[in-house]
Structure of TAP binding protein:
Amino acid sequence: PPPLAAAKLGCWFVEEASGGGGGGGSVMPSDLTQRRALLVLPPPGQRLPEAALEPDLPAEVEPGLPDARPRWCRSARPGPGEAEVACELNPYYPREAHVPWAAGLVGPKGGCPRSLDGRWAIATIQNPEADFGVSSILHREGPLPGKPPEVPRVTTATVFTRTPRLESLLGKDVLLDCGFSAPATAFSVEWRHQHSGAGRVILAYDGAAQRMTEGARLFLDPGSSNVSLQLKGAQVRHEGTYICSVYLPHLQAQQAMELKIVQPPKVTLRPVPFPVHLNTHTDLACEISGHYPQSVSVVWKWHSPGAPAKVLLETWESGHRQAPDGTCSLTSFARLPALQSGDQGGSYSCHVSHVGLGQAGLQRTLKLKVAGRLCGGGRTAGGEGVKAAGVSPHLGRRGRVCPPDT
């Protein structure tokens, strides 16, 4: 078979503007600059010398950025109908971690070994539609003293996820996927939850002391790079952003995952049964309960026999009510037009739209089957349809509605 070609992925190279931060890597950079870049992904097990790539670079791309062999098995080139891959490159500055669960990774002496010399960058690639995200730390080593110059070698440490976006129903277990690839060494893991401007660490693994904080379940098998997190019985309070950070000596990479809780509403019409009289208005109620998120829309329609459906305009809603579990409820009201004799066989419907119901939404309909005695005396017409509709005006021998007895 013909040799596999290198995949080329358009990226943005983002860094601090010169002069802002004294060497870069400041916590709050004042200005950022971005340039077009090209991330070249050789076929698995192969290397492409940088000098061989530069003649093929587009004019707007500057040479000199490192290439990397990916540690994940997906195509970086979107096919027809696939979503574009988001790619960003940033300068990277190795440093010790200062969180308690990673402080012991570098040992008591600390300091920066010569192996950290050279040029570092971090590449972040995301395609939520294809269910993957990856961050790779790239290292191009400088020449060693007394050694002849060689082709620069790029090493990587990678953190990845296959669940960048998740949705869950209430009460279901949720698996937040996170894994890493790196040289065999001690490591620490942190899982952080952020929502509505607040954040907290929900689980941390101290790789140096082999300790773990209590919290959700962490998949941490001996010799495994799987550091996924399981949430038991997801609730509304679990919604938000989850950040999986993997700490190595002097290095750190992370992946962020968005969890949304979606619970479809229950919809009921009331009152059933209820009395309806000729030439009077009737108020109906549509109870929408137990849903999340809060946003919901309601459309009322009246379906008269032999005529197009009409949207009822005289409608109003109660305020949203929130249950202790965080789900929401509301009641939508509609006023039916005054019932006429020709409305026999008509129906009304309450159509609810919510993210948990899909594009079709949910509709509840009741058909008006009017039954009663014959006009001018005689037998009574059984009353069928009363249970189905909860409505019982009276019909005459020729479909004419008779006034109720007084």
